[in-house]
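Checklist before submission:
- one chain only
- standard amino acids only
- sequence pasted in full

Submission:
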Amino acid sequence: MSAELAGHLKNFFERYLREQRAVSPHTIKSYRDAFKLLIHYVSARRRAGRHLTVKDLDAKTLLAFLQHIEDPDNGRGNSIFTRNLRLAAIQSFFKYLAIHSPNLERHSKRILAIPSKRVAPKAVEHLSRKELEALLVQPQTTTSDGIRDLAILTFLYNTGARAQEVADARAAWFDFPNRTVAIIGKGNKQRLTPLWPSTVRLLELYWKNHRRKPSRPASDRFFVNQRSSHFTRFGIRTIVKKYLRLAARRCPSLAGKRLSTHSLRHTTACHLLESHVDPNVIKAWLGHASISSTSRYLDTDLNYKRRILEQFGPPDYVASALEPKQDDPPEKILEWLKNL
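Returned file contents:
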């Protein structure tokens, strides 16, 4: 890799992303992974000893790279969604170059013209209330880890938090007297979410009596794992998958669904919608940047659509036209004729 490309990447990650855009550590890691894959791919196809430059990352090469990571046989077998995430990371770098290196503007524009692939929207899988109950009874509350795991599952459902947000949860986020939590999510945006009294009691029980003594780096984290360290999002996912698997034995309908940690977030949204909560409130509850992210839950709730249908129709004429008609008696017809 040439000093030119290395310098641009260093400034992109350390100055542009961290200082100017203040993106989250999770985003930086995602962008880093995209470039590790890209540079490894391009380097493996270049002559040994030749430096890799910005110009080597041209549109043709990047399209081949994107095709490679989707290839299930000779590549990584990534989904279209992941392919688009990798492309977004690479294009963010070339947007930076177009602004800060005018000599690379034309080259960058060719990269920025590469389109994202259209991806069919996935059906939103969520748990019914019965399935949710089957999940929540799985942790063994006779153990400290069981109390912690139940607290994690309950917190996920109550707040609609992402796995990363649960892993990042700090003690300072919680205001137990006022039953709220200030979650810091994507883009370092904060949202204030109410907690049920039962959630507060469970979280306080875990914090006061069952939380492991944390290591120094994890001292401010609310949830602590078996190694006395802070959780990663993968650790949170492992816990949720474990209890989903156990719950499926008790509740067979779970076995037919493709569920994950994010499914609890979907469950929160769908249950809020079922409770007649306005979609804009759900948007704020989940920390969506746009109402379009929230609107997909409307497509999953047929009952919500039926309530809306009843509010605006049907027209009176249609309803009355379909009512059975009764023939008038002869006396009424004669009376009418007499009055003509």
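Reviewer check: Residues 3-112 form a domain with the DNA polymerase; domain 1 fold (CATH 1.10.150).
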